[in-house]
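testing teh design pipeline on a random one, pls ignore if ur not involved
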């Protein structure tokens, strides 16, 4: 494994960081749903141009923390986020920040593919249009085609761009959602169990795609599959009961973790 992903664990603080400059930098994050303390004093620095996988037993807070990175938790009234989360150094909870802009910079792909009830073309064109990324129709078309190509979908849909996105297979819909996310040139792509509704062949295609996208993006993927984490990520974060236990090189997390709780989880002692 490429040592540039070597993680540095600072024993003096719960802060876990990598040697590469972070794209996402979270410090002392606490998240509550009413009385429920879902994320406990979590600090992590996530580098650019790599895939980081969040693993851990169901209910340990993976989705909760992921959603805090593009403020999707804002839509849950009982949810309260405290602490500091920065992307490229700027505080994403700054009251003056435009959340719509943030969610374009930090795209999200969900468990169930959720294309808009519009054409394939419009699904991808929507973001660039509302964010004014294209000067004219030709430029918009160019963005749509490039995004569909990057998402590995163009060849399959080029003859039916005006057909509804919802008419595609599940795997194609998920690649359409990825094309929609990348069409606005995000910095970060968050994926919450993006393959859990897909068959093994569609899953393999998404995993291949994730591997290509990491050349250009900071990708964070929540997965309940340790095999998937091992296949697609360079870095893995193990969550347990609302805390980040360990974050480091995927190879090391799976072969020589520093924490006993990680060891117990990856060897199937709980989960
Ligand atoms: P994971 O993604 O690791 O399975 P979640 O982030 O979904 O875990 O959940 C973490 C904890 O927060 C769980 O105890 C869960 O029940 C609770 N939780 C998640 N979403 C909500 C919500 N909308 N309202 C209240 N509690 C929630
Ligand atoms: Mg989840």
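output:
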């Amino acid at each position: 494994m490429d040592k540039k992903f070597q993680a540095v664990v600072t024993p003096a603080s719960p802060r876990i960081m990598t040697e590469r400059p972070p794209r996402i930098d979270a410090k002392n994050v606490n998240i509550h749903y009413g009385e429920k303390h879902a994320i406990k004093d979590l600090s992590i620095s996530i580098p650019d141009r790599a895939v980081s996988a969040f693993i851990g037993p169901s209910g340990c807070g993976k989705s909760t923390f992921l959603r805090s990175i593009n403020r999707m938790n804002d839509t849950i009234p009982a949810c309260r986020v405290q602490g500091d989360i920065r992307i490229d150094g700027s505080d994403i909870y700054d009251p003056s920040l435009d959340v719509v802009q943030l969610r374009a910079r930090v795209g999200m792909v969900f468990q169930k593919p959720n294309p808009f009830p519009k054409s394939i073309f419009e699904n991808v064109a929507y973001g660039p249009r509302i964010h004014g990324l294209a000067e004219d129709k030709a430029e918009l078309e160019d963005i749509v085609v490039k995004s569909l190509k990057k998402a590995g979908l163009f060849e399959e849909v080029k003859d039916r761009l005006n057909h509804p996105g919802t008419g595609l297979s599940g795997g194609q819909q998920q690649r359409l959602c990825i094309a929609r996310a990348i069409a606005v040139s995000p910095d970060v792509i968050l994926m919450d169990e993006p393959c859990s509704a897909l068959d093994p062949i569609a899953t393999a295609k998404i995993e291949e795609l994730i591997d290509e996208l990491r050349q250009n993006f900071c990708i964070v993927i929540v997965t309940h599959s340790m095999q998937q984490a091992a296949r697609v990520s360079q870095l893995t974060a193990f969550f347990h009961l609302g805390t980040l236990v360990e974050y480091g090189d995927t190879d090391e997390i799976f072969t020589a973790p520093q924490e006993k709780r990680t060891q117990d989880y990856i060897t199937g002692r709980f989960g």
